[in-house]
Amino acid sequence: RKRFRPLRTVVAWRGRAEWDQVMVGLYCGDSRLQQEALDRVSAWKSRYGPKMPLAVDCTAELVRCKVLDSSGRLKSHELILSYGLALVRFVNLITERKQKMVSIPLRQLAREVDIPIWVVDLRHELTHGKLPRLALCRKGCDVVLDWLRKTYWSRQLGNSLCEESEDEEEEQEGMEANAGLDNAAWE
């Protein structure tokens, strides 16, 4: 008889400690630590390529916008375009996996995954309409980063970045402690 070994998943990060360090760095609010976390995500991406989890990629792009914004090096219009691209990519990538053979409206898909409808409307304006104000793009970025933190990052490896209400804690306890770090698990 042959003994089967459990399948191992190869990931770009060294281990849980590195994953946790990047996760905390991305959400810490200190632009220097955020930049270090972004550099680490870039290294992961170079190793992992298209297998990089969408949530990690989207989080990095949105945090990169916030770091650029806090640096004061970009003009308002450039920041709007930067935030806009990151927000459009987020909505498109997250809802794309839910699209079937028949086109489903983005608003419906957003409701299914609990993304605020106004973020989808912001994406629509960025794509098809007049560019919104910078303040609205910043607000959209903050809301989406919070959504990613709650929906993806906090669920990975049973970790949590924020103090949660009791309801959220009970919900967290009900989730699988070791949810996979890949795109399939995130769906």
Automatic annotation (TrEMBL):
**Biased composition range(s): Acidic residues:** 163-174
Task: Classify the source by domain of life.
Answer: Eukaryota
**Entry-linked InterPro entries:** Las1
Q: Which GO terms describe its molecular function?
A: endonuclease activity
- Residues annotated as region Disordered? 163-187
> Single GO cellular component annotation?
preribosome, large subunit precursor
Q: What Pfam families does this protein map onto?
A: Las1
Q: What are its GO biological-process terms?
A: maturation of 5.8S rRNA; maturation of LSU-rRNA
Transmembrane annotation, as ranges: none
The molecule here is called LAS1L protein
Which source organism does the UniProt entry give? Upupa epops (Eurasian hoopoe)
